[in-house]
Amino acid sequence: MRALRRILAEEIQALEDPRLFLLTVEAARLSPDGGLLSVYVEAFRDQEGAFEALAHAERRLASALGRRVRLRRLPRLEFLPWNPEP
Asked: Which strands make up the sheet holding 76-81, listed edge to edge?
């Protein structure tokens, strides 16, 4: 999962969308069937704007992930706020 997290972080940074400034990809978890990749992000500035930008770029990010990682099938991306456990 570290590779998926790193690749997504690089691809998000490459988007150059100002709403994604100061955004960190904290974790990525692939579902057991490989159909869903939950990506946990922390936005230090505009969380609502960051999630809008990520939703807008979801297909582009999934495509970039498919080009860079060998997966049985391309998962759907789900972006969630990072809530570290206390």
From this structure: 23-30, 36-43, 76-81
Q: Which among 4, 82, 74, 5 has a CA at the least distance from the CA of 50?
A: 82
Q: What is the DSSP string of 5-60?
A: HHHHHHHHHHT--GGGTTEEEEEEEE-TTSSEEEEEEEESS-HHHHHHHHHHTHHH
> Which structure tokens are listed for 33?
């069937």
Report the C-alpha gap between 15 and 42 in whole angstroms.
17
Q: What is the pTM of this model?
A: 0.89
Tokens of 9: 């972080």
pLDDT in tens, 46-70: 999 999 999 999 999 999 998 998 8
Q: Which residues contact 86 (CB under 8 A, 6 or more apart)?
A: none
Per the prediction, the chain carries an average pLDDT of 92
Residue 83 is given by DSSP the state: -
